Amino acid sequence: MATTLQPQTGAKPATSLTNEEILRYSRHLIMPEVGMEGQLKLKNAKVLLIGTGGLGAPLGLYLAAAGVGRLGLVDFDVVDFTNLQRQVTFGTSDVGKFKSEAARERLTNLNPNIQIEAFETKLISENALELFKDFDVIVDGTDNFPTRYLVNDACILLGKPNVYGSIFRFEGQATVFGMPDGPCYRCLYPEPPPPGLVPSCAEGGVLGVLPGIVGSIQAMETIKLILGAGENLVGRLLLFDALGMKFRELKLRKNPNCPMCGPNRTINGLIDYYEFCGVRGEEAPAPDVQVPEITPRELKSRLDRGDDLFILDVREPHEFQICNLKGHLIPLGELPRRVHELDSSREIVAHCRSGKRSAEAVDFLRKAGFRKILNLKGGILAWSDEVDPNVPKY
Amino acid sequence: MSVKVMIPTPLRVYAGKRASAEFSAATVGEALSGLTSQFAELRKHLYTEDGKLRAFVNVYLNDEDIRYLSQEGTPTKDGDTISIIPSIAGGVCENAV
After folding, report:
1. What's the pLDDT band for A48 if we cut at 50, 70, 90?
2. Of the CATH numbers 3.30.2310.20, 3.10.20.30, 3.40.50.2020, 3.10.129.10, which one belongs to the domain with range B2-86?
3. Which of A24, A158, A235, B6 makes the best surface tag, with the fewest CB within 10 Å?
4. Which long-range contacts (CB under 8 A, 24 or more apart) does A362-370 make?
5. pLDDT at position A145, please?
6. Chain A: nearest CA to B64, how far in angstroms?
């Protein structure tokens, strides 16, 4: 089903292309599915990208290349060295810059004909409706549950399509929410997972090219919506399994009792999404487990003094190969069944990469009766910062 | 009836890293019971303490959400595929911890 968007009122639409634009977009123009008419639709379209990270990178690049007349980029984050593995809008010289600004520079260079606005701001309930209202399509390239619900609700309240994509390690999902007869995010997921039940992040990470693929699918769906071409993903959840290289599709139905997009709407305004998702504070995950700690400097002094400490490393084997403190390796997930390898009469210091997983390990061991156990605060990252900079950070 | 249950990436760590498992079952509920019997750690991620499927976990029989069929009582036939689709935010777990 090809659906066309209603153009925003108020703005004077472009009615022609310059000679430069005609040459630039010639490969679009020679296709009957696009032609001058289609390219003008792209020129007059206004798309807001929420997030300029892994998904936002291919999105921004392809929408700019295609000639979307106005692109908004919403991101409050700064380019980090570890982003370069997948956020291909950025180069090494962009590290430290605001992402929205670095993306704006890159995309302007790619296509100086279009208008690109960088919004260096966090998307929150207080600004979402105002930000969204001047755009035709919203593309969700975010990375957390509260924002996903916020984007969804704002789109439904304003009647804007929401081109959704998400990824986890080797899998991706894509669909289009927010179309008049189609479902919304809450139809698929009426409730967010409570933070304590988000699957273990001990084996996080993502293949850089995965958001490249899913973000490109989102860009394709956005362009199709603007052109009114082809069959789009309304009511269809596209599932991508990168390792198996398989695409599957599930039916997404509009929930007749949806509190947001159903006929009996009960949600009439934006809410506190962090509270809704059971997350307090600034996008913080579940509060850290409170356990007795030792700082890297304290650990170093005690080791230098000759104290008999048993170092327990709860990371994964492939992390141990990157760098280690010569600890005894028991990955966190294996701890329950390998606890017999530990001697509770010895003083144990548990560590991981950043101190989070080892805090859980200490909590578990204390509940199992271990009394002489400490968590290395800040993990091996802090050890590198405070004690031995030769230990690589990752 | 031999049915295949697809295990999504975020839950594979609780299922011995398997991507799928086969069970003999007459209904979706039976197949899921088979799954949580074989992989006990999966239970709390799929079910609440009073035995209800968690609201953020969607279960599909072939390409249809079981909420629009007969929930866990939906009958299955040979060769059916049951998919578990938990919500993924895409990036929450991207960073190493």
Report:
1. very high
2. 3.10.20.30
3. A158
4. A362/A289, A362/A291, A362/A292, A363/A289, A363/A291, A364/A335, A364/A336, A365/A335, A365/A339, A366/A291, A368/A339, A369/A344, A370/A342, A370/A344
5. 85
6. 6
